[in-house]
Amino acid sequence: MAKYRAVILLLLSLIISAVAVWAAVQWMNRQVENRTATKTIKLVVASTNIAPGLRLTPDLLKAVDWPAQSLVAGSFSEVQPLLNRISNVSLSMGEPIVEQKLAPVGSKAGLSALITPGMRAVSVRVNDVAGVSGFALPGNHVDVMVNLQDDQNRPISKIVLQQIMVLAVAQDAAVKDDVKAKVVNTVTLEVTPLQAEKLDLARSIGNLSLVLLNQVDKTSVSTPGVHKLELLDLPRSTPYKSAGGGIEIIRGTAHATASAN
To answer: What is the third-level CATH fold of 40-112?
Structure first.
């Protein structure tokens, strides 16, 4: 009899242990579910790729469910307040629409909406070489170099503006799906008012070229410009025959011509 009683007690303890384990597992599962359960909110995103300077319309926007704990600063929960606003940057499909990427309320569509307040847009004429063979695209940064005659009528090339953003190439203010080089005859740059004056003077007295920069390169350089002597790697004081038959002596910036006799 005692033997059967021991067996019964053992079975009861096993059953109680199994129930306890099952209850513990169920409790842990509920805790995991509670932790992973995500509350969502409505967030307006781009329903397609949106080019800069484009007016927002209902077909370009949609409200989607978005994790509440990942709320995006400056975002919108409804489409209506965004209608007729202007994008001032490229927006990718599915990207949240935020205030920082929109032009001020009341802005008109087009290039003017892309200009940073306080800045100016200036177009310069380029060719297939001066335009970096068509690889300067909207959003890229370039240096502007001018080739002209100095005060002593010597040719010189000099970088006159640095870290200038390209607003548009020809009439395109957005990078197309294919980023192949496109040779154009004009490039529009975003500059300060002072830089606009320098650029206007440079293009009136010399030939302009653009120097394309790495997109993450923010360094500035200071160069004296390059004259023909530096280009040909000649010493600063070098005598050579002039076109008139004499010998021209160059010492620094001083010129002298001596008779060949």
So the answer is: Type Iii Antifreeze Protein Isoform Hplc 12 (3.90.1210)
